[in-house]
């Protein structure tokens, strides 16, 4: 089995778990999770070591991270089963201090990159370790000024141990990113801030691996991952409403069948 | 207080290798020695307070203990959400330092005054606030903040009625100071309680009438620990009336919280606070205090009125 086939199998399993979680919880934020799962699967299977840190800056994708951590054995069945329920440590946006694998409570956009940059600075200049930090942002999140404050900081301090991935699914809260507040050309912006920037198909595992490998010696890396909101479920793909809607039983079954490639 | 702060934090950083200093591009003529002494442990993050607090949180998540310094309004309001989410929710040892509490920056204008800084930070989870009464109070606050495992805020200020009088007593835990003791000419007398550098106005009022029948205290830490401040509570039990002074708006101020704590224990609680004015004129800190009605003379007059 090739590297990509292997990860595709992981991502499929994660998507199934993810959809089950959302169906049972009657919870939204499905589209945003589906656009991120391939990236999350890659990071947790192939990129992050035990010492590295990952910050989910797009906190509304928390459930896709929960499903990914569950798939790789970090969260148990019992813990995952509490998702979205009363008395859970798995709310719709990550909780503070609940799991070592989720260092930061995010959900308000524009917070994760400054935190990741602080961690990367400490690792590079204070602790002098080779540990790395990855942060996953959404494209809509790049509207936030604090993202660019942190981008300038990371480049200025040559945080070459920092990997920023933009889950660029092209849709944000109330419309297309190009209609709401056009941040394109996104790659040029990160490049001009001093990042070693790549632009890829965010659902192509070979491209993801290539773009996240061999970090530059002096510059932080930014990967603009062009993704599809709702990826893997055709009736959700590219549809704004799947940022918000929960699934009916019929929709859930259709979504599962679609993932399996059944007509 | 800035000189005392820099001196104290410099000494602390020499002892604590996990501590580091972040500034939002401020510190000219004050932080140069810290910048030179600590290499990568001194970090000018630029004019970017949101990022400064997020970075401070990230640093603290790796085990570092950062100080994050700016002018008080910039260190608090601009980055309030970063302080709340990134620092307080994670209970991280980030020490936010705001220089210029109250009207310190006087003629610099309203944008530079900090009259709601304590109000916005006070309710945040895990947060401890420190507001020294005068220059000789700063080192003790820095030392206590250095020991905290969670977040804290230090409010540095220069009073329009500057004094650096040594207190009669200082509680080592709460840092609460006693500046004056009742002459006991009356059975009841008055408890004058100040928050932070407003105590310097009360000390100046006391100088105008040393025989006034009032206990004078200066709070310097929130949340309160009133069980430890037995001295203050004993005074209030005797006098049952409080004059509370702070260089901060009344709403959300330390006085409001103190009033809530001692409601039922007092018959009178009078507050002297900064007051917002629509047709504000600008001047020195002393000018603003006079405009808002907080001077040694007005404090004395109010105290006498309460005693009459």
Structure description:
The complex is a heterodimer of chains A (263) and B (308). Helix content of chain A is 43%, strand content 13%. Chain A has 263 residues and is an alpha/beta fold. Chain A has one domain: 3-Layer(aba) Sandwich (Rossmann fold), CATH 3.40.50.970. In chain A, helix 6 links the parallel strand 2 and strand 3. In chain A, helix 1 crosses helix 3 and helix 2 packs parallel to helix 3. The mean pLDDT of chain A is 96. Chain B has 308 residues and is α/β, with parallel strands linked by helices. Chain B starts with a helix and ends with a helix. The mean pLDDT of chain B is 97. At the A-B interface, helix 5 and helix 6 of A face helix 3 and helix 5 of B.
Question: Which terms would index this structure?
Answer:
heterodimer, A: 263 residues, alpha/beta, Rossmann fold, five-stranded parallel β-sheet, two-stranded antiparallel sheet, 10 helices, 43% helix, globular, B: 308 residues, 2 domains, seven-stranded mixed β-sheet, six-stranded mixed β-sheet
């Amino acid at each position: 089995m090739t590297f990509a086939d292997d990860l595709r199998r992981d991502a499929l399993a994660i998507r199934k778990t993810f959809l089950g979680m959302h169906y049972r919880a009657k919870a939204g934020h499905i589209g945003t999770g589906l656009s991120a799962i391939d990236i999350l699967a890659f990071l947790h299977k192939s990129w992050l070591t035990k010492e590295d840190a990952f910050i989910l800056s797009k906190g509304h994708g928390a459930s896709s991270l929960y499903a990914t951590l569950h798939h790789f054995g970090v969260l148990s069945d019992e813990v995952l089963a509490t998702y979205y329920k009363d008395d859970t440590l798995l709310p719709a946006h990550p909780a503070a201090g609940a799991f070592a694998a989720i260092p930061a409570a995010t959900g308000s956009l524009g917070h994760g990159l400054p935190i990741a940059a602080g961690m990367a600075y400490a690792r590079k200049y204070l602790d002098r370790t080779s540990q790395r930090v990855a942060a996953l942002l959404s494209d809509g999140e790049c509207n936030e000024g604090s993202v660019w404050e942190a981008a300038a900081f990371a480049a200025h301090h040559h945080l070459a141990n920092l990997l920023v991935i933009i889950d660029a699914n092209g849709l944000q809260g109330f419309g297309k990113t190009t209609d709401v507040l056009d941040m394109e050309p996104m790659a040029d912006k990160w490049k001009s801030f001093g990042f070693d920037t790549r632009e890829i198909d965010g659902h192509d595992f070979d491209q993801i691996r290539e773009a996240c490998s061999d970090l530059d010696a002096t510059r932080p890396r930014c990967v603009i991952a062009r993704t599809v909101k709702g990826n893997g479920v055709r009736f959700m793909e590219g549809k704004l409403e799947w940022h918000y809607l929960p699934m009916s039983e019929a929709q859930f079954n259709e979504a599962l069948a679609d993932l399996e490639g059944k007509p | 207080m800035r000189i005392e702060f820099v001196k104290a934090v410099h000494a602390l950083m020499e002892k604590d290798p996990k501590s580091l200093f972040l500034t939002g591009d401020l510190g000219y003529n004050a932080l140069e020695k810290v910048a030179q002494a600590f290499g990568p442990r001194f970090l000018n993050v630029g004019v970017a307070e949101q990022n400064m607090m997020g970075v401070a949180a990230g640093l603290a998540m790796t085990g570092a203990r950062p100080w994050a310094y700016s002018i008080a309004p910039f260190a608090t309001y601009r980055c309030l959400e970063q302080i709340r989410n990134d620092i307080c929710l994670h209970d991280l040892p980030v020490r936010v330092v705001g220089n210029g509490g109250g009207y310190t920056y006087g003629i610099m204008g309203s944008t530079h005054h900090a009259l709601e800084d304590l109000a916005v930070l006070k309710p945040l989870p895990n947060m401890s606030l420190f507001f020294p009464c005068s220059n000789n109070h700063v080192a003790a606050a820095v030392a206590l903040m250095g020991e905290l495992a969670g977040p804290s805020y230090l409010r540095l200020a220069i009073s329009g009625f500057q004094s650096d009088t040594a207190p009669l007593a200082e509680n080592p835990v709460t840092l609460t100071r006693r500046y004056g003791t009742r002459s006991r000419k009356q059975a009841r007398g008055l408890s004058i309680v100040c928050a932070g550098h407003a105590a310097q106005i009360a000390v100046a009022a006391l100088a105008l009438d040393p025989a006034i029948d009032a206990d004078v205290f200066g709070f310097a830490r929130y949340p309160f620990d009133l069980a430890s401040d037995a001295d203050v509570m004993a005074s209030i039990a005797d006098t049952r009336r409080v004059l509370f002074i702070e260089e901060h708006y009344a709403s959300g101020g330390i006085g409001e919280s103190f009033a809530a704590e001692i409601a039922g224990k007092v018959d009178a609680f009078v507050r002297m606070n900064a007051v917002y004015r629509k047709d504000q004129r600008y001047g020195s800190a002393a000018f603003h205090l006079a405009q808002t009605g907080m001077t040694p003379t007005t404090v004395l007059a109010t105290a006498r009125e309460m005693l009459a």
